[in-house]
Amino acid sequence: xxxxxxxxxxETRPEIEFANAxxxxxxxxxxxxxxxxxxxxxxxxxxxxxxxRHHERWRHxxxxxxxxxxxxDTVTDKFETTYKAGEPRR
Length: 90
What we know:
mainly beta
């Protein structure tokens, strides 16, 4: 069983209480009206898929319901750390 620490609840709970929300720290476009179709494709769908350490966004769906960021190793599935949304990348 994978255990994940919610930085808002300050509890470590089973993975089933959480939902992965994709890559963390994806910058939104400053002026979306200037984007063409290929730029929107890149923003909405193209993500890195690294082997190893990866910054991800998670949601504690069966707890506080808040989004937070995590650093997880994609090879071992181990969580290095979690931190609140809005905090700088670690």
